[in-house]
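Chapter review: from sequence to fold.
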Amino acid sequence: MNFLRAISGLPGLLKRPAFVAQVIATDFLPWVLWEEPKNILRGYFAYARAFSEILSVPFLLRSLMSPWKGIAEEMPSIVRWDQFLQAFFVNLVTRMIGMVIRLVAIILSLVLQVLLFALFVVLFVGWFVFPLVAIGILAVVFIIV
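The token string follows.
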């Protein structure tokens, strides 16, 4: 119903071009050129911060050689060499598993940040290019028709 009311009000607006120009200059252009790009930028930084907190690269690098889930055996004296070797290899395996999982998480974090930045660039540039493309398409359609 509101849509029909808005459409029915268009002929009245078109009879007042000075008012339409004033609304476009004072409300629409500042929103298109300033307010919404700020919101897009804020949104990007919020998502980038959230991704960096979820998969913290500095923390993952600090704990890169730590055992996976803290699974480690206490190292006995070297005199008991069979228990020493068993504990050594268990600790070695848990550290290797932890390193592999943390490296995958670091790579995933970097890939997510790159994809997020690419999406931001497309959205930000598209925000400014879309009106030009739309006007160009409308001009071509009205020229052809």
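Two observations follow directly from the output. Residues 2-144 form one domain. The helical segments are 2-14, 17-54, 57-62, 81-144.
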